[in-house]
Amino acid sequence: MDVSEIIIPGDTPGIEWRLPVFRFKGDDPATPKVYIQAALHADEVPGTALLHFLCEKLRDAESTGSIAGDITIAPQANPIGAAQSHFGELQGRFDLGSRTNFNRDFPLISLRDRNSLIEDLDRYPATDQLKRQLMHVALGADLVLDLHCDDESLQYAYIDEAFWPEASDLAAALAMDAVLLSDGESSAFEEAIGFAWKYEVPGERHAHLPGKLSVTVELRGQRDVYPHMAKADAEGLWRFLAARGIIRDESISPSTFAGPAVPLDNIEMIRSPESGTVLFHCNIGEEVTEGDLLATIITRPGMAHGSIEIRAPQAGLIVTRTSDRLVRRRADLMKIACSQPSGIVRKAGTLED
Ligand SMILES: [Zn+2]
């Protein structure tokens, strides 16, 4: 295991961020190269725990000469976010200085301009330097996995339709409950990587990218960080890597994904029409039918008729749920994966800011 560091100078004196990157060299140059990062949203650490255990397995594989393709791993990809504590609470999603989401505003460039990402880096603030450095490393690979998690959530992934159904082996290996098929129309890390490949020849768009993969994996919820889950997920990624021939393990046979693969247009984003105290009637993993009572919101506590009911707009699988129990008006309460498009028109890109 080769260890290097991405070093990012802070925007104020006396600060320097150091981000370890681990490399396992493969012995077959024809085998796909892999890049895996976790905790780009710095408060989402199920992937960090997963990668801790995966690295242990990869060190063993290295000692027996079982690694065919190069594997690069950044288990804690965002030291800037990890250091942001605001009134005692970690703020890992948005950069406090610029209010930008750490997983948005990645540069949309062609693969052939990869090296421009790290030219004259001192022109950019620290968060942009971080994004450019991560993207530069990732674009050296063929398969890119960005490990996140949701709030209260099943195991699922955002996968650009350009990589589907080839990526169903990843969904099977990680025992995903659902796959959300995205349109590739955002500046999130995973979609910026896909963009660079799609426009490898500028002006010519490749709609399908065989042999490539760039996904956002949502490893359940933010508090689903336990040894058994992390080890099982590390085994899952190991199965994926073995099935793709990146590591040699004859005992692994490919499995098939039987869960739902749902376009983002078919996700019902359940929002609270008013502020109030949330009483959920349904949990993640439940299948609901149209009209089922999802939540009661107590909008005027103690008053007659002081609550409202939130009902399912159509049948589907509850994939995520907020952990907040006091919500603001328009707050996201749930994502429900459905077989029909939502009646609410979605703008292209990601489901959430
Ligand atoms: Zn995230």
TrEMBL record:
Pfam families: AstE_AspA_cat
Protein name according to UniProt: Peptidase M14
Swiss-Prot/TrEMBL keywords: Hydrolase, Metal-binding, Zinc
Names of required cofactors: Zn(2+)
Gene3D superfamilies, per database record: Zn peptidases (3.40.630.10)
Keyword Zinc: yes
Ranges for domain Succinylglutamate desuccinylase/Aspartoacylase catalytic: 31-243
Record carries keyword Hydrolase: yes
A GO molecular-function descriptor: hydrolase activity, acting on ester bonds
